[in-house]
Design goal:
This protein has 321 residues and is mainly β. Strand 3 and strand 4 form a beta hairpin. A seven-stranded mixed β-sheet has the order 13-11-17-2-5-1-21, with no helix packed on it. The chain has a domain of 173 residues: Thaumatin, CATH 2.60.110. The relative contact order is 0.20.
Length: 321
């Protein structure tokens, strides 16, 4: 792996209502012109472009989008500096932008069912990273994790090695190389074995890994099983992989869909989504959508004047940094 340094990263949160969610979650039937209209109007309405654009060649922007029906509290830590992590509230339909420099390596995940007071002190049912809104340590299993190492070539994956708390999809934008979409096609909680299930009020809120539950060398890939030849997929990790085929399901999950390499300008990290959905981000004065059928592409403002005249005002945009 790579060596790591401490970096300062920036976060801005874009507050959107339900109508605006169509900008980031586009069905194959939604036209490019319509998608562009919504985002163009958003920026024309007063969005501070400095928080949205990533024009530096030494930084990359992560668009974090909450597609869940409930509020989540994303956590972000830099490897080697987990004591000073980031954390914030992200309501359904909201989007946050996180900028990191080339050379950054870290983790992004969602905390669920949290309760923080006005001082940012509290707790979460899953994904907890200390007792404050800003993470002070790595997340506690079980939780789904998006992992990144940025450089001339980026490495990224969605990891279920520490278990699962909600689906995550990672989509690269404008990248070169493999640049495939990492993550899940469904929700592991719906088919989690009872012996791995974490429940609250009778509902499965997370699914633990076999290593976390049984703590054996065989499941944890340690001792006599501490190499890829000896440590093979278990029935439990195969179950994870079936639902999240483009993910790391156990410690030595090394197939081509596990850890992906790509030279990409930006990434979209979507919570509670599936890989067959299309999402858009704003980069270098363009709206870029990652279409699972045809790859990343920029949307041009063709016909937007007509849309501006005929479409009613459908949303209110507020910004909070």
């Amino acid at each position: 792996m790579h060596s790591y340094k401490n970096f300062t990263c920036n976060i801005s949160v874009l507050h959107v209502n339900t109508a605006f969610r169509s900008v980031f979650e586009m069905t194959p039937n939604l036209s490019s012109s319509l998608a562009f209209f919504f985002i163009f109007f958003a920026f024309a309405s007063g969005q501070n472009a400095s928080t949205m654009q990533n024009t530096s060649t030494t930084t990359k922007t992560f668009t974090l989008y909450n597609h869940c029906k409930a509020t989540i509290w994303p956590g972000i830590i830099t490897k080697g500096d987990s004591g000073r992590g980031n954390g914030f509230t992200l309501n359904p339909g909201q989007t946050a932008f996180y900028t990191a420099p080339t050379g950054w390596s870290g983790r992004i995940w969602a905390r669920t069912n949290c309760n923080f007071d006005k001082n940012g002190t509290g707790s979460c049912q899953t994904g907890s990273c200390g007792t404050s809104l800003n993470c002070s340590r790595p997340s506690s299993p079980p939780n789904t994790i998006a992992e990144f190492t940025l450089g001339d070539i980026d490495f990224y994956d969605v990891s279920l090695v520490d278990g699962f708390n909600l689906p995550i999809v990672v989509q690269p934008l404008n990248g070169k190389g493999n640049c495939s979409i990492a993550g899940c096609d469904g929700d592991v909680r719906n088919s989690c074995p009872s012996e791995l299930s974490v429940r609250s009020d009778g509902k499965v809120i997370a699914c633990r890994s076999a290593c976390n539950v049984f703590d054996t060398d065989e499941y944890c890939c340690r001792g006599a099983y501490s190499d890829p030849v000896a440590c093979v997929p278990s029935n439990y990790s195969r179950g994870f992989k079936q639902i999240c085929p483009a993910s790391s399901s156990y410690a030595f999950d090394g197939d081509a869909t596990s850890i992906i390499t790509c030279s990409a300008s930006d990434y979209i990290v979507t919570f509670c989504a599936s890989r067959n959905q299309t999402f858009c981000s704003y980069h270098d004065n363009k709206v870029i959508c990652n279409d699972t059928r045809s790859g990343s592409k920029a949307l041009l403002p063709q016909g937007w004047w007509n849309l501006m005249v005929t479409l009613p005002l459908a949303f209110i945009l507020q910004t909070k940094i």
